[in-house]
């Protein structure tokens, strides 16, 4: 039986465990990336590990999230990150150079390499045939130190594409179709490998749109083969030397297969407030729109913005629509400028932002109360835009541009028979002057007042009495646990200040209750912790004394972050146990040492009612050790 591309790359990098065995595996990481909202912690952790320089082939630190400088905090963080990059041997992509995933694709991604990034959309690199995975900052810090990255041996799903996209339908509609079929939790534990004859019709940036938003499936990663399209892209980036052909064996075995006929797709939109609530744009047509945002790491390549500009050329955005364009990279923005397309965007009334995450993470451009905002982004969780009652729809650049012109959700096919043709450039404008190479290992680290020491996890006692401060529903996101946005993000390197905002959207007053309790637990439904990789969603609860999260299931990255922070990720043994436990009750856990060492369900007492419920865990031997040691940082130092 032949091998999938995923298994080939995993096999080349395997350091522990067995492929196909279903257990935990360790892999060697070739490249890492961090961004400024997660990077401060990652480099503080790398510093705490105590190595002088990174041991990867390449590590890059990007500044792209916290670019609104309302106070000193973000600039302080950037100065810290720049000095840490120089000292530890990391490339530093300055503020204004673009979004980590877009720039990494353009300038650093290499087919067949492994990439670990402290951002959930790191799988964007899968568009180039890399095995690119998102993780918490601490996992990335360990990988920078040369340590293996551990993951559950993934199930590999083949997404077989046939045919070619019809006019006005683009890559975003493909991944929205996958989300419609698979759902936001359907990808947990899986890697989506794209193939079939339709794959060859997609350029590398189009593929990257798909692998980027594979994160919204909860998937471990997504990957395309490295073929002629990949070669053309790398050649146009003046990096053809980085190309090598890579594909699955023709008789490769897969856990599942998903067939998509590209020719049968139509423009789609994800409705508020989940990326898998997908409808045809035509069915939503006529809904008034107050804001249209084009950009983010999903859809802000040269192809996407040139297409947008061509659709808008010679016309104006509807007077009721605020049209925002955030280019993905300085390369894209300068090429738009040189081609004149930037003028077309400005003439159409676009508010052009610097190349950064911007509105995608609520860094400015919060929509008006109750507004409908169409975005080419990847997440539409309630409140993430900065406006709690805004309704965010996720769409392609084509649908966004058509709707910006009309002021209502518009199926772009209504604009005519064929969209303006945008050819992939023969050569991109390559200028790496805003990427600073690694500096002197003696560089002193700059530490402004916003850089606070790392919180330290406690080790596991044998008995715990834990008030359940909150009982939450299904699909709780890390934006619910640790909100982002322009007001809160500047506190990412200041855990005590950040802690005041924990669980704000779903459990107001959480921080005060947790502090009063000393030690506590949180209960939740399915897919707890989906979304962002931010380890702050574990670090902050740990800082506030949360010792266990008991859920029906967990999202991959967040579960790993909980363990890394020494918080027990427990599961309800049965549905009835979930029903029985209520917020405000106290859970008494005894014999925890034995319970963690064993693999059997164990009892927990609800103090108020005297009822016993049964809990379990699915920790690997390595994870059991981490929990006992009080998390990954303590364990690594030991
Ligand atoms: C996001 O899209 O939610 C972020 C902001 O990029 C996060 C990282 C973070 O919270 O800093 C992610 O996707 O991992
Ligand atoms: Fe930035 Fe948004 Fe992409 Fe996250 S999803 S990396 S915030 S552009």
Supply database-style keywords.
638 residues, 7-stranded mixed barrel, globular, alpha/beta, 6-stranded mixed β-sheet, Aconitase, domain 4, binds iron/sulfur cluster, 3 domains, Aconitase, domain 3, single chain, binds alpha-methylisocitric acid
Overview of the structural elements:
Helix content is 30%, strand content 19%. It is α/β, with parallel strands linked by helices and 638 residues long. It has 3 domains: 5-263, Aconitase, domain 3, CATH 3.30.499.10; 270-415, Aconitase, domain 3, CATH 3.30.499; 464-637, Aconitase, domain 4. Helix 2 (36-49) packs across helix 3 (72-88) and helix 6 runs parallel beside helix 7. It is globular and about 70 Å long. It binds alpha-methylisocitric acid and iron/sulfur cluster. The site of alpha-methylisocitric acid has 13 residues, from helix 2.
Total of domains: 3
Percent helix, as a range, is 25-40%
The SS-based structural class is alpha/beta
Outline the biggest β-sheet: 7 strands, mixed, barrel
Oligomer: single chain
Produce the secondary structure layout:
Elements: H1 5-13, E1 14-16, E2 24-27, E3 31-35, H2 36-49, E4 58-62, H3 72-88, E5 91-93, H4 100-107, E6 114-117, E7 131-134, H5 137-144, E8 149-152, E9 155-162, H6 171-182, E10 190-195, H7 204-213, E11 221-223, H8 228-236, E12 256-261, E13 268-270, E14 278-280, H9 281-284, E15 291-295, H10 302-312, E16 322-326, H11 330-339, H12 341-347, E17 351-352, E18 372-375, E19 391-394, H13 397-406, E20 435-436, E21 464-471, H14 478-481, H15 485-488, H16 495-498, H17 510-517, E22 520-523, H18 536-543, E23 546-551, H19 556-564, E24 568-572, H20 575-580, E25 586-589, H21 592-597, E26 602-606, E27 612-616, H22 621-629, H23 632-637
Parallel strand pairs: 3-4, 3-6, 4-5, 6-7, 9-10, 9-12, 10-11, 15-16, 15-18, 16-17, 18-19, 21-22, 22-23, 23-24
Antiparallel strand pairs: 1-2, 2-8, 5-20, 13-14, 21-25, 24-27, 25-26, 26-27
The structure holds alpha-methylisocitric acid (MIC) and iron/sulfur cluster (SF4).
Alpha-methylisocitric acid binds at residues 37-38, 65, 119-121, 134, 361, 484, 531-534.
């Amino acid at each position: 039986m032949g091998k999938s591309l995923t298994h080939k790359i995993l096999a080349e990098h395997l350091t522990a465990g067995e492929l196909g065995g279903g257990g935990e595996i360790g892999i060697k990481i070739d490249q890492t990336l961090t961004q400024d909202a997660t990077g401060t912690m990652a480099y503080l952790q790398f510093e705490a590990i105590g190595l002088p320089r990174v041991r990867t082939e390449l590590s890059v630190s990007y500044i792209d999230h916290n670019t609104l400088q309302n106070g000193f905090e973000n600039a302080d963080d950037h100065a810290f990150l720049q000095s840490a990059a120089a000292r530890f041997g990391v490339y530093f992509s300055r503020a204004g150079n673009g979004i980590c995933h877009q720039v990494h694709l353009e300038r650093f991604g290499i087919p067949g390499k492994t990439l670990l990034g402290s951002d959930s959309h790191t799988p964007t690199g899968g568009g180039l045939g890399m095995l690119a995975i998102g993780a918490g900052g601490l996992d990335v810090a360990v990988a920078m130190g040369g340590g293996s990255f551990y993951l559950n041996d993934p199930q590999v799903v083949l997404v077989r594409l046939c045919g070619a996209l019809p006019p006005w339908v683009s890559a975003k509609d493909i991944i929205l179709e996958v989300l419609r079929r698979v759902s936001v939790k359907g990808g947990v534990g899986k890697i989506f490998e794209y193939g079939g004859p339709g794959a060859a019709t997609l350029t590398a940036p189009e593929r990257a749109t798909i692998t980027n938003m594979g994160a919204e499936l909860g998937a471990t990663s997504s990957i395309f083969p490295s073929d002629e399209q990949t070669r053309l892209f790398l050649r146009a980036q003046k990096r053809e030397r980085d190309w090598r052909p890579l594909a699955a064996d023709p008789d490769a075995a897969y856990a599942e297969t998903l067939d998509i006929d590209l020719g049968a797709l139509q423009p789609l939109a994800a409705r508020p407030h989940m990326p898998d609530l997908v409808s045809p744009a035509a069915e939503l047509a006529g809904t008034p729109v107050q804001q249209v945002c084009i950009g983010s790491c999903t859809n802000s390549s040269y192809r996407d913005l040139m297409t947008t500009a061509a659709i808008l050329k010679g016309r104006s955005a509807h007077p009721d629509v605020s049209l925002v364009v955030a280019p993905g990279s300085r390369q894209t923005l300068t090429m738009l400028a040189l081609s004149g397309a930037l003028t077309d965007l400005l003439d159409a009334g676009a508010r052009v932002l610097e190349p950064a995450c911007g509105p995608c993470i609520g860094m400015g451009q919060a929509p008006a109360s109750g507004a409908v905002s169409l975005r080419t982004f990847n997440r539409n969780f309630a409140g993430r835009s900065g406006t709690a009652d805004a309704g965010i729809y996720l769409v392609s650049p084509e649908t966004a541009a058509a709707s910006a012109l009309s002021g209502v959700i518009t199926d772009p096919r209504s604009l005519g028979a064929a969209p303006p043709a945008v050819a992939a450039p023969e050569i991109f404008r390559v200028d790496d002057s805003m990427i600073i190479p690694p500096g002197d290992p003696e560089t002193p680290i700059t530490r402004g007042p916003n850089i606070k020491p790392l919180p330290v996890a406690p080790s596991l006692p044998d008995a715990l009495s834990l008030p359940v401060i909150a009982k939450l529903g299904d699909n709780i996101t890390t934006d619910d646990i640790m909100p982002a946005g322009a007001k809160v993000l500047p506190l990412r390197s200041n855990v005590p200040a950040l802690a005041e905002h924990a669980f704000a959207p779903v459990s107001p007053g959480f921080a005060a209750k947790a502090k009063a309790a000393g030690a506590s637990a949180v209960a939740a439904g399915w897919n707890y912790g989906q979304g962002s990789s931010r380890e702050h969603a574990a670090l902050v609860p740990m800082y506030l004394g949360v010792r266990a999260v008991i859920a029906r299931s967990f999202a991959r990255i967040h579960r790993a972050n909980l363990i890394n922070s020494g918080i027990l990720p427990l599961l309800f043994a049965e549905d009835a146990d979930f029903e029985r436990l209520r917020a405000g009750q106290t859970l008494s856990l005894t014999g925890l040492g034995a319970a963690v060492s064993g693999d059997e369900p164990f009892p927990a007492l609800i103090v108020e009612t005297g009822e016993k419920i049964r809990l379990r865990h699915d920790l690997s031997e390595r994870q059991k050790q981490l929990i006992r040691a009080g998390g990954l940082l303590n364990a690594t130092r030991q």
